[in-house]
Amino acid sequence: MKKLLQMLLVACVVLVNVQLVSANPEKTIITEGFDLSTIHRLVIVDPQYSPVKDGATKDAVMNMFYKTGASARIYVMPKSDVEKSILKDSNVDLSSLETKKADEVFTSNVGKYADAYMVATIVHNSRVVIFYDVYSAQTNQMVYSYEIVAGSHDEDSLKTYEGLTKNFYRSFEKTVQQQIKDQNKKK
Q1: What is the CATH number of the domain that holds 92?
Q2: Which residues are bridge partners to 135 per DSSP?
Q3: How far apart (Å, rounded) are the C-alpha atoms in residues 161 and 166?
Q4: How far, CA to CA in Å, does 61 sit from each of 49, 52, 77?
Q5: What is the pLDDT of residues 67-78, one digit of tens each?
Q6: Starting from the edge strand earliest in sequence, which strands make up the sheet with 26-30, in order?
Q7: Which pLDDT value is given to residue 20?
Q8: Number of domains in the chain
Q9: 36-42: average pLDDT
Q10: pTM of the predicted model, to two decimals?
Q11: What is the pLDDT of residues 100-130, one digit of tens each?
């Protein structure tokens, strides 16, 4: 009987540890008073990313953010679409400007083409951490922030980034749905 209890205790400890290790720690920050359900078009801007040795290129990461967003309930578009629209409408080629000036022109014009834009920051530590910051295209204020940490056994690869990005889109959609429910309760 004593041996059976010891085995059950060990099994419980192992199960709890497996659940804790496999769960990706995440944190969400929402700007109070901003209605996330007003975001229908989201621009994916170039991520803050420095490739590790033999890691994915910045273009591959950017493409992954865009493709992963295709399954989201909002229209996701790359920054290049907005840059083309700015060139067409304002006759300003952002690629010919200095970075700081190009950012100023982008942020002052992005509201004409989208509701928000997302900047991702990928950090390579002992574990991969990705910060997803969503800014209102009208005010350039951060309205939603999501941080997720990869599992300790996840490798620093495009596949890991894709899994974490899917979690971001799911979390964003859940947050929007929760806001809608909360607004309906107040009515």
Answers
A1: 3.40.50
A2: 117, 142
A3: 9
A4: 9, 12, 14
A5: 888 878 889 999
A6: 26-30, 142-149, 128-136, 116-124, 41-44, 75-78
A7: 45
A8: 1
A9: 93
A10: 0.82
A11: 999 999 999 999 999 999 999 999 888 899 9
